[in-house]
């Protein structure tokens, strides 16, 4: 078994962060003390919240002149959400362009700890 396979087996299934919308991330980030939180789930919880903050308005905003753009935005958000669910299920540190680095900063998860597979960050 390789080191990356062993590291992936130690990581929790992050698809739960995305599968339950914002419910799990909000509960996880507010109910569990930060010192006991898993850095991997903390990162994915923040990335999920950021994704939903920029994606959900496309459900409700309907401007006739921008209908095509809003439909494209909705489709891009859906594709990003599906990619996050799949990569989370594979236990990977998947970063969405633009949102991933911000989620990493908000989660306080360092790149070095990510590369070493450290969950305590």
What features would you describe in this structure?
The chain has 121 residues and is an all-alpha fold. It has one domain (3-116). Helix content is 67%, strand content 0%. Helix 3 (23-31) crosses helix 4 and helix 4 packs across helix 7.
Q: How many separate domains? A: 1
Helical segment count: 8
Q: Can you tell me the residue ranges where pLDDT is under 50 for at least 5 consecutive residues?
A: none
Determine the fraction of residues in helical runs and give it as a percent range: 55-70%
Give the end-to-end Cα distance, rounded to a whole number of Å: 25 Å
List keywords for this structure.
mainly alpha; 0% strand; 121 residues
Task: Tell me the layout of helices and strands.
Layout (H helix, E strand, L loop, with lengths): L2 H8 L4 H5 L3 H9 L7 H17 L1 H4 L6 H23 L9 H9 L3 H6 L5
Question: What would you say about this model in short?
Answer:
The protein is mostly helical. 67% of the residues lie in helices and 0% in strands.
């Amino acid at each position: 078994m390789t080191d990356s396979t062993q590291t992936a087996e130690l990581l929790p299934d992050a698809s739960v962060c995305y599968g339950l919308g914002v419910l799990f991330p909000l509960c996880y980030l507010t109910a569990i003390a930060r010192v006991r939180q898993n850095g991997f789930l903390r990162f994915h919880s923040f990335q999920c919240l950021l994704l939903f903050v920029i994606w959900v308005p496309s459900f409700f905003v309907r401007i006739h002149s921008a209908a095509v753009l809003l439909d494209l935005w909705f489709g891009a958000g859906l594709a990003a959400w599906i990619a996050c669910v799949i990569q989370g299920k594979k236990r990977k540190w998947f970063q969405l362009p633009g949102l991933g680095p911000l989620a990493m900063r908000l989660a306080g998860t360092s790149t070095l700890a990510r590369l070493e597979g450290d969950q305590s960050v």
